[in-house]
Give the backbone structure.
Amino acid sequence: MSTGRASVFRSLGLLASASILICNIIGQGVFLKTRVMTCELGSALPVLGVWLAAGLLSLCGALSLGELGAMMPRSGGMYVFLRRAYGEVPAFAFGWMSFWVTGPAATAALAAGAAIFFNMLSNGALAGLHLPIEFLGLHLAITGLQLGALSLIAVGVLVNLFPVGVNGGVAAALMVTKLVLIAALCVAAFALAHGSWVHYASSASPATCIGVSGSLRYGAPALAAAFIAALYAYQGWSIITSVGGEIRNPARVIPLALWGSTLLVILCYLAVNAAYFFALTPREIAGLSPASSVAVAVIDRVFGTSGETIAAGLLFVSTVAALHTTILTDSRISFALTRDGVLFPAIGVTSRFGVPVRAILANGLVAAILATLGTFESLTNYFIFNIWLFNVATISALFVLRWREPNAERPYRTWGYPAVPAIFIVVALALLVQTFVSAPLDSSIGLAIVGVGVLFYFARAFIGASSPTRRALARRDPVEPGYRPRRPP
């Protein structure tokens, strides 16, 4: 393991980069959110329209982020962009949130979901496990599902300790498997479910929407709620910039991976949802149990009693793929903070293969603690507002840097500038307002978590934590060693 200056290797090509992005975006959301959206909007066409609109908004963000990623292809992604545009404090606030909240909570949630699907595949093998623990006079216990989640986190961490090129290959294999399974689901729904195009003209009823408050409200509130649900399924379109320091020819690969992968996911989501509504009526979709999934119901319709096992396999593969890439990308944000000397410098070193092993282990440890305590579900409610707040700040950095650094090297320039990033910012700001109005407590708690990070930053400065090493790092051009930007042919 290296004990000198941290450095990473550029080993990821276009296929690996796109695979990481697609695996991260397509997790559980597209299999779970259609029911809630149907309860909000009532029928198939409005739901499909919202899936398309949310995808186009994500595409606007991806097109805009491509310029920043090609301009600053360094490990850390949004942390690096925020630091260049606004300084250390906003960047540190983002990194703090990522290290303690968003990254570990997302990892814990994905691991918990994958454990549930594995339990279904193994006929309840995890449900019967129970591990009692005595600690400081306390009588604690870990359930089988928690053990399963911890095991999956451990495996994900172990795999990510291999060179990034190996993990790019793993992501590519998982992406192909995931897309093949999703394509099979769509074909089966249209060919074997005995559905009908008439379903697109029918509507759900409020009585069928169990556990969805204000069902079929119509108007702006329902549209906003459905839009936010769809955006949850698209979350992750920005993560490839987190491994920007490990991508070969980033000036070409980062923009292509961003908009190409996002387009593919949009098409995939539209196809999946079209299959849902062909196989099931809106009333049947809205009437599903909150603990169920539309994908499970469709597969049950096609394959009968064996459908649950097939559905569990699809969901398990999809969730494990997202878990793998979440650990991969979030650790690079933590690594970027430690490399710049602003958070736990001891974990900011790499192995001889250029892998930030200590950052990976640290992120895995925090995620394991959250999975054990079972607190990640509440945390996921708190960080949605923060994520979109930082998304707006990052895309706004495109305007800031165009104005402040007009002559900076830009191997790729955002298509449709300034309209494309402006559309993203305006719509995202409207969603932030709607989110704060509908969930003021969760949004406020999320902001408070970021506020604690800002206080921690200034506390470190107050006690003299700004070392000569950190100041030297702060003066470095924010590009990985050995990279020289060039315009693609």
